[in-house]
Amino acid sequence: MKKSFLFLGSAMLAACATSPDAAERYIDDRNALFATVPDAPATWAARGVAGEAPTADWLSQFNDPVMTSLVAEALAKNPSLESRAALARASEALTRAARGQRLPSLSATASGGGTSTGVEIGGQTDRINDPSYGLGIDASWEADLWGRVSNGVAQADADYAASEADLAAAELSIAAQTAIAWIALNEALAQERIALLSYEARDRVLTITDRRVRSGVSGPLELRTARSSLANAEATIAARRQASMEAARRLELLLGRYPAAEIAATATIPELTEMAAEGNPALLLSRRPDIAALEARVVSAGLRAEEARLAMLPALRVSGSAGTNTTVFEDVVDPSLIAGRLVASLVQPLFTGGRLKAQQEAAIAQAQASVAGYVSGVLNAWREVEDALTADVLLAQQETAQGVSFEEARYAEELAERQYISGTITIFDLIDAQTRRLTAEGQLVSARASRGINRISYHLALGGGVPVAAADTIPAPTEVQTPQ
Prior knowledge:
CATH topology: Outer membrane efflux proteins (OEP)
Distance between the termini: 55 Å
Order of helices and strands: HHHHHEEHHHHEEHH
């Protein structure tokens, strides 16, 4: 596996050898950087298993047609994707411009004018205008000595490949961000629903307490405690509603919509099955578009270093011109009057105040930084997958435990309410039971949402591609659905 990493920097080895000492230092530095990347294991360490190559249709496991339609909308209308696509088009145009440098440059000129001279006739001076017409063609061309022009074309191709990979990475990222934002919105609405249910429960307690006070069973302390508890539940509803509206706006921005917090959701968190390991560490590097972009930039940086070296070598430039200059307009295109010249020049930089040498050293350092960035990107890509694999197991355990905690807290709340009515416990015991139920249910919702978000992050880390199911759009609702 390490050999494949070394291959990525091969373009730079030939590029940076201005002198044997500089080349050897660069090779040593580059090999030292690549040596920091461990060999890719055959399986994921978190599970000890590997799987088939990831599929693009990772949205189907959520069984949520609205999520699918929102992802499709984001891919079609997200402004940052439009910006990234425009940058890719610009890079492609620069590639064509670089290829055009292999051909001669031609330009044509046309001129017309005249000169005025004074002639004395009969003691008077008259002005006579002498017309002048010209037509010319200029040509220039630089011979591809030392591969200077070809190097520029290769560099433009590498930059274009990086921009295309950046676009693919951005599309995958926007798809994942949209799916995550949809889950986050449903989580926020679910938490708002829990707050509403808590308010209803605290309101029942206040009603019971007020009746007990009227009958003389309870005193003002319990009544004021019940009122405080109800007000606290009302404040929680306001906070949860604010979080829901902010989550809706974040999603709407990803969709390219006005952030009006008007997108609907059902407050439903997907329940997932166990996550299967897909691909393997070696396969990952050939799938992730951000890694492909880093590879292309390694090549581009090496070619820039080569460009800096070639700038110190002679350049052969050929230029030519042909044209006419006459006082008779009809003679402008007369072949017998055409005059021309052809000049070839060999240009060798002699003294530039150390500018070219400094530029070369900077280019070599930038190439080394690109290699280090690639190594860092590879290690980070592996970490993201391993984190997601581990998190899925632990989040599943957390979800199961939180489910048990919620059920027990719900039964405890029901029991505490009956005991409070019968007078066997105080209002503080009942409020404590209600708080435990509220906390347990909120934590269960958060655990399910975290597991769903982690599943999306897992496919993003795998470089699973833009979901193919997102192509079939389903009209997404646009009105707020209040949690029940």
